[in-house]
């Protein structure tokens, strides 16, 4: 835990000095708390480039019309990212072998996880209704892929996100990190499946999306 001070601080000190006055991140990155998913590594980002939200199973609780947000941590971060920091690319990144997704699929998660994983109900329904994007995957990984995509729909249940997307000001991306192969995939609408990030149709189409092109 002291490694930063002894091995990295000198290298990064000038960058942090520049960042001290503020941040202008390139993307909002929503991913799982899993220790094997390292946003700055898989997106090849430097300090100041990614605004990150992490939680169990990378869920975005949907906004229910007329009801105050059921969970304010994620929605607050999303609002701040889009409306204050003016971030224009949002990535939801799931991953293989997700313990949270396994608990969600089991239908009987440990009691402390129950309330949180209830936000994954729409993911379960989408996976069951539409079937797997990649039938060769385990059921957990199938659900994980469907869930990352579902979170984009959940994001759009929030009025300000939907307005920005409809105005063409914000793009939503679903990514999936395959841990055994260390391969980063992006959902391709044209192919209706996750493809290697280099083959994705629009991962780097926007000027402020350099973080995404950097992943190549
Ligand atoms: Zn996970």
How would you explain this protein's 3D organization?
With 216 residues, this protein is an alpha/beta fold. The protein contains nine helices and six strands. Helix 2 links the parallel strand 1 (27-32) and strand 2 (50-55). The longest helix has 17 residues, at 3-19. The chain is globular and about 50 Å long. Residues 204-216 have low confidence and may be disordered. Residues 32, 34, 57, 95, 98-100 line the site of zinc ion.
Topology:
Elements: H1 3-19, E1 27-32, H2 39-42, E2 50-55, H3 72-84, E3 89-95, H4 99-106, H5 111-117, H6 121-130, H7 139-155, H8 159-166, E4 171-178, E5 183-188, E6 193-196, H9 210-214
Parallel strand pairs: 1-2, 1-3, 3-4
Antiparallel strand pairs: 4-5, 5-6
Helix pairs in contact: 6-7
The structure holds zinc ion.
Residues 32, 34, 57, 95, 98-100 line the site of zinc ion.
Q: What's this entry about, in short?
A:
The protein has 216 residues and is of the alpha/beta class.
Global outline: globular
Separate helix tally:
9
Low-confidence parts? 204-216
| Largest sheet: spatial strand order | 2-1-3-4-5-6
Under CATH, the topology is which?
Beta-carbonic Anhydrase, Chain A
Question: So, CATH architecture?
Answer: 3-Layer(aba) Sandwich
CATH class group: Alpha Beta
End-to-end Cα distance, whole Å, is 30 Å
Integer-rounded radius of gyration: 17 Å
Q: What fraction of residues sit in β-strands? A: 15-25%
CATH superfamily: Carbonic anhydrase
């Amino acid at each position: 835990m002291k490694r930063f001070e002894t091995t990295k601080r000198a290298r990064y000190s000038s960058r942090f000095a520049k960042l001290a006055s503020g941040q202008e991140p390139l993307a909002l990155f929503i991913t799982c708390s899993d220790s094997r998913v390292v946003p700055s590594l898989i997106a090849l980002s430097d300090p100041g480039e990614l605004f990150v939200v992490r939680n169990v199973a990378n869920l975005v609780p949907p906004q229910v019309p007329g009801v105050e947000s059921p969970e304010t941590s994620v929605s607050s971060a999303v609002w701040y990212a889009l409306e204050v920091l003016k971030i224009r690319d949002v990535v939801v990144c799931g991953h293989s072998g997700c313990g949270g997704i396994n608990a969600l699929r089991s239908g009987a998660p440990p009691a402390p996880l129950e309330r949180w994983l209830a936000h994954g109900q729409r993911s379960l329904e989408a996976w069951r209704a539409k079937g797997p994007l990649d039938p060769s995957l385990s059921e957990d990984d199938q659900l994980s892929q469907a869930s990352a995509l579902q979170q984009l729909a959940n994001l759009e249940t929030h009025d300000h996100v939907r307005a920005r997307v409809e105005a063409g000001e914000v793009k939503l991306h679903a990514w999936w990190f395959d841990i055994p192969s260390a391969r980063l995939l992006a959902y391709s609408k044209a192919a209706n499946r996750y493809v290697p990030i280099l083959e994705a149709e629009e991962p780097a189409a926007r000027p402020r999306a350099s973080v995404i092109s950097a992943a190549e």
